[in-house]
Design goal:
This is Transporter. By secondary structure, this protein is mainly β. The chain has strands at residues 29-44, 50-68, 73-87, 90-91, 98-100, 103-107, 111-122, 125-135, 156-169, 172-184, 192-204, 208-219, 240-251, 256-269, 271-272, 276-285. It has a single domain (29-86, 101-285), classed as Porin. The strands form two sheets. The chain has a twelve-stranded antiparallel barrel with strand order 1-2-3-7-8-9-10-11-12-13-14-16. It has a two-stranded antiparallel ribbon with strand order 4-5. A hairpin with a 2-residue loop joins strand 9 (156-169) and strand 10 (172-184).
Length: 286
Amino acid sequence: MKKHIITFVLIVLASNISFAQWTKGKGKGYYKLAGWQLQYDEHYTDTGAKDPNRTRTLFNTSIYAEYGLSNKFDVIAYVPFFASSSQNNQISGTTGGTISQGETVNSFGDVDLGIRYGLYKKGNWAADIKLTLGLPTGDNNGGSDGSFQNGDGEFNQILSSSLGYSTSYKDKPVYLKSYLGYNNRSEGFSDELRTGLEAGINLINNKLWLITRLNVVKSFKNGSLNATNSNGSIFANDIEYSSFGFETAYYITKKLGISLGFDSTFSGKIIAASPSFSGGIFLDIK
């Protein structure tokens, strides 16, 4: 979830969608192979203003999975098995020469493991509670200056709850979902409040879904790490942002599909100020 400008959240959170099924059901699952990229040349400072920085690019390839252990319990995993952090050469505007060389650091990323419990499901309403563990499996100190990060180096725990409502509009399936979560962080990082809204509609005979979402992260500023010189790193301390995103998912068959996503911050502190893009192929076993 903290691994991306939009959460992972989230984790996902994040760009991994299962179309308003808060628990999968015993033996059912959702599996996704995806790529995600963020390239930015400016960032939000600790005051919320925008400042320029040398162009940096973050990219990862991940596997996301949800599996129903029972009709009430799901297990969830997000595994970024390839993560890359790179920076362009710095070129002189006067001479055209290279002032400093760019760098690239490739590694494994930070893994999220979670479990979700279906609290309530009746009629059009559903609610769940989820615990996510963020494992510090990525490189958090790469490159010549230690700033090329593919992880944050801390173990965190996110406890969150979702409430959703599904219905139809002109015979087309529609859902609305909200979530609220608390991210308990270690190693001097501040804890976070996470909340958001998501809405989706199915447009073409259970084949094409359109999804939009809003996510907000607020820092409690109770950590000890200094992040004022992080230049937009998404792994910094005291990150805050409000973001919106869109995603489309198309089922090629009843189980197999492809998805494309876009997410962008419209306000923030100590975070990159550019949109991220994602795409993937998924298997939805209902």
